[in-house]
Amino acid sequence: MDLSVINPILLLAALMSAATPILLAATGELVVERAGVLNLGVEGMMIVGAIAGFIVAVNTGSPALGFIGAAAGGAVLSLLFVFLTQVALANQVASGLGLTLFGLGLSALMGQSYVGVKPPRMADLDLGPLSDIPVLGRILFSHDAMVYIGLLIVLGVWAGLKFTRAGLVLRAVGENHDAAHALGYKVKRIRTLAILFGGACAGMGGAYISLIRVPQWTEGMTAGVGWIALALVVFASWKPWRVLLGAYLFGGITQLQLNLQGAGVAIPVEYLAMSPYIVTIIVLVILSADKSRAPGSLGRIFHASH
Amino acid sequence: MTFTKLMATAALTLGLATGAFAQDKTKVGFVFVGPVGDGGWTYEHNQGRLALEEEFGDKVETVYVESVAEGPDSERVMTQMALDGADLIFTTSFGYMDPTINVAAKFPNVKFEHATGYKRADNVSTYSARFYEGRAIQGHIAGAMTKSNIVGYIGSFPIPEVIRGINSAYIHAKKVNPDVQFKIIWAYTWFDPAKEADAAKVLIEQGADVILQHTDSTAPQAAAQKAGNVITFGQASDMGQYAPLPRVSSIIDNWAPYYIARTKAVMDGTWTSTDTWDGIGPGMVGIGEISDAVPAEVKAEALALKDKIASGEYHPFTGPLKKQDGSDWLAEGETADDGTLAGMNFYVEGIEGDIPQ
């Protein structure tokens, strides 16, 4: 065992990158759930975003356009969920599960001719003198743009929900859709926009895996990240900063356990492998001991005549 | 994945419908653990399947189902294939061992071939390749080329097949570089590109400048390419798209001759249950071209080693060798028997760390 081989600076830097897909997907889902909709299709939207972004990036040679394509791909797939739950008033749980299965199959079909193709590489952002700061520069200022965009989205969602009128309306719709409707707010329109936003975020999270973290396309490559993001939203009691904490904790311990294995730590590998899940859940459960609760109308179908 | 499975099942059903018109066709099924486009293990098995079609043309019909989870799901897929009239079914992952035996018991007239397992029956053969022969050559190159003396190894599951590979690579790296050290990370998956990429990055951050992998995707190669100054080896497939650097050589599985021979045996009615374990000599294991990034003398030594293994003059597990705990294993000049190799559950002396139990 030789712990000195673990470089904490590199570990923290890797953490930010490893957490970004979960962070993006979970933040999108948080907005959806705060609007009172439970969309279990995150995994499906992520994988469709992963291949949609990959196809756009390969064909245009631009990773940035790839991420826009991924956001569009995730949002378009979420339209199916909008149709099922907001128009056809189908059960949200069943529709979400269906969306995941459909997304996994659809992405496999779309990606048939992209197996083994190398995507254009997204350069790390050049932040000039900032990245030359000792320690902090390597940890905070040496990443690709999506890491920062992810953080900006969390910041935007937090500020938007807390300080803006639109955020207030969205929360009102999520807490009590009948009351919001009686006040004259367009419940379905607001929920549709929230679902589209969630789809776009999940799509970008998926593309982060296929374009930056791996980078290549293979079927099923999101490997359950969407489900972790869903769980994270609940354990974070629907609060953006806790989602950020949870995502970083999960990403960090995932990286740490690989590092510990490499250093030959005498803890059985199986315990190391499960540690990210356990630690993240424990920390967030302790944090959620305050009186936070789920949005009042979460998962309930809204129909104006009821 | 589910969608492709659905399509494949539909294809199987169609196959049954058309089978009625072409009774003389031999139907061969393949159960794959990953997608045929993984660029590694499953890709090469699928190449073998395509070679089979090429060889026999109209006389053979092949079906396959990809990304079949090891366990109960695979049993369902095999049963469906047998019901749909397959004469011969190849199940190509270690985790299909018990399901293969179970399904074979229910269909005594269908022949089964299980890759990398050790359980046989009257209608179940086993076959595997001596990958450890190829890993000896990779280990030689790895030991000669590492500058940091740290070689990173991404293991999948702690099963004899993988442990054998680690030992073989380590023994031959150590021979050319007494200071070499192996860092092993277990991924607990055959195929998860994000995890494999992360594992490779961690090994590189911890000082490894050579990455060996026993997982199926090319993600570690991509990670090494980004890091620069790190060399890798293709696993199962050539992975030549990453040559000449970071991929400097590879172990290639060549299943085609075996698949053709076994299908021929079914056609001729001469099929019997056998256990095949072939290596570099018969051509089941191939060594991908050693790129120019490898110094000429190292390349020459590696090729000489390959020739000696192929001719049977040299066995990669030749004594004196001790186990990790310091106890004696092989005496001077003694070679390991196949039984010990097939059930290998210990590291050789010098490797640090424990095998997960």
From TrEMBL, chain A:
Membrane-spanning parts: 6-25, 37-58, 64-84, 96-115, 135-161, 193-214, 220-238, 245-265, 271-289
GO molecular function per UniProt: transmembrane transporter activity
Claim: Cell membrane is one of the keywords in the record: yes
Pfam family name, one: BPD_transp_2
Any one cellular-component term (Gene Ontology): plasma membrane
Membrane topology: Multi-pass membrane protein
Main location: membrane
Record flagged with keyword Lyase: no
The entry's keywords: Cell membrane, Membrane, Transmembrane, Transmembrane helix
Organism: Pseudosulfitobacter pseudonitzschiae
Protein name: ABC transporter permease
PANTHER family: ABC TRANSPORTER PERMEASE PROTEIN, SUGAR ABC TRANSPORTER INTEGRAL MEMBRANE PROTEIN-RELATED
Location(s) in or outside the cell: Cell membrane
Classification via InterPro entries: ABC_transp_permease (IPR001851)
